[in-house]
Amino acid sequence: MNSSIQHRWLASGFALLVVLGCKRTESEDSTGASEVTPTVESLRADNTKKNERDRDGDTVTPGDQAENDADRSITQRIRQAVVDKDGLSTNAKNVKIMTANGVVTLRGPVQSAGEKSSIASIAQTTEGVSRVDNQLEVAANEPSKE
Question: Which domains does the chain have, with CATH numbers?
């Protein structure tokens, strides 16, 4: 087979995989339960309300991160400790951490109350932190612990 034909087959195969991978599908597991795989479009976050809230100027955003060495160092040490902590979700490892004059603001979604308190504890025990404003939001679908 010449190179041009091989490239066409590869491109066709890739296009087919992309189309199949983005389609909403339903499958059954061995118990007969049906599982729905969401489409790419249904997984996109809609942060419109949060973005509107953040535009009012009263909300601390990453743009408010102080540029002095002490505050940047605090933020870097907290971020490194959060990323290195085993058991945290990807969302938890990507929360916003902003420091200004020793005051740390934590914002973003986490999977559980445990993650929220774990990240706040890391921030509170970091040298140079005078106060922590914990605005982390626990995901609405957290399973109840009854």
Answer: 3-40 (no CATH), 45-138 (3.30.1340.30)
